[in-house]
Amino acid sequence: MIHHGSDRILLFTVAGLIVFGLLMVFSTSGALAAHAFESPTYFLARQGVWFLLGIAVMLASSLVPYRVLSSPLVAYMLILVSVVLLVVALLSRDVHGAQRWIFFHGFSFQPSEFAKWAFIGFLAYSVSSRGEDLQSLRGYLVSLAVLSMLLVLIGLQPDFGMVALLTLVAGAMFFLGGMPWRYVFSLGAMSAAALVVFLFAAPYRIKRILTFLDPNSDPLGEGFQIRQSLLAIGSGGIFGKGLGGSEQKLFFLPEPHTDFMYAIICEELGLWGGLAVLGAFLLILWRGLRTAWKAPDSLGMLLAAGFTVSVVAQALLHMGVTLNLLPTKGLPLPFLSYGGSSLVMNCAGIGVLLNVSSHTES
């Protein structure tokens, strides 16, 4: 049972997205699963397991008082576990040039998803427990050190999408936590400089940026994915081709069930379907920020804001990539794309958000 007084609009919106996500996972992955695993329900069955686990985690985290994260033992333990898991992932086998997963009995787990969740909890504790110290940079040194450590470990995988997301979430929480503007601008400038260095450190990243600016410059190489994504979105028109009617998922658009889920949604359900999904995430943004505004203390405010920004920013980044508004980078669409780590940890975040909402005044 969800805690009495929790935000029912938020709960039903997320629940609706999760159920719709199961439907879309089957729609986008059926042909691929039949070809690769001789079972059209292969990905659906696995996602179903994560679905049940995600619901259980969301229920559990909604019942645990959010103030448990005010304990330094809990906050630092979360970071310690995150670091260990990220190091283990770096020592695991390489998959398509990346070491982002820990494998166990046929299932895989992405530690960066847990690290994102843990860092939000840690930063909420760190900022809310320092009070007046936050008017000087000294009050943020521990948080910045922990953030830098996590970003380096995630960047080594490499997973630039998660690095960008975690940076955005941290920036939002620092700002809402009361960081003076001069520090916000300074850290933003430093982040931008680090981004430029990171992008130009590898030739393939430079090529990806150039392809983002002109996908037709390499139509069968780096530009292939985004060209197919735009073709899927454009061919959907206003009302779409109907659920299951996508043609781009039939081995034209790579990773249609994960990195390009939104493109297939727009192809099958059209402009109205795409707007409905966008509207659902904007509704989550409204309810989450409303909870943050009405939270009884700074810890609750920062937790609500952090998990809200995390989910919505990831959704907008995913949509931006599929629409060629951002360079191509793999980030699942929260609650909708195939992937257990993302689903479970986003559910855990929503559970904390629901618990904070149960302590607000209506």
Model description:
A hairpin with a 2-residue loop joins β1 (102-104) and β2 (107-109). The chain is globular, with a radius of gyration of 20 Å. With 362 residues, it is mostly helical. α4 (111-128) runs antiparallel to α5 and α9 crosses α10. The protein has twelve helices and two strands. The protein has helices at residues 8-37, 42-63, 72-90, 111-128, 141-155, 160-176, 181-200, 203-213, 224-236, 261-294, 298-322, 340-357; strands at 102-104, 107-109. 67% of the residues lie in helices and 2% in strands.
Task: Give a concise summary.
By secondary structure, this protein is mainly α. It has twelve helices and two strands.
Task: Outline the fold blueprint.
Layout: H1 8-37, H2 42-63, H3 72-90, E1 102-104, E2 107-109, H4 111-128, H5 141-155, H6 160-176, H7 181-200, H8 203-213, H9 224-236, H10 261-294, H11 298-322, H12 340-357
Antiparallel strand pairs: 1-2
Helix pairs in contact: 1-2, 1-10, 2-12, 3-4, 3-5, 4-5, 4-6, 4-11, 4-12, 5-6, 6-7, 6-11, 9-10, 10-11, 11-12
List the uncertain runs: none
How far apart are the first and last residues' alpha carbons, in Å? 20 Å
| Shape designation | globular
Radius of gyration: 20 Å
Instruction: State the strand order across the main sheet.
Output: 1-2
User: Helices and strands, in N-to-C order?
Assistant: HHHEEHHHHHHHHH
Strand percentage, roughly?
A: under 5%
Alpha-beta content class: mainly alpha
How many beta-strand elements? Answer: 2
Q: What is the arithmetic mean of pLDDT?
A: 88
- Largest sheet: number of strands, sense, barrel closure: 2 strands, antiparallel
Helical content stands at 55-70%
Number of helices in the DSSP assignment: 12
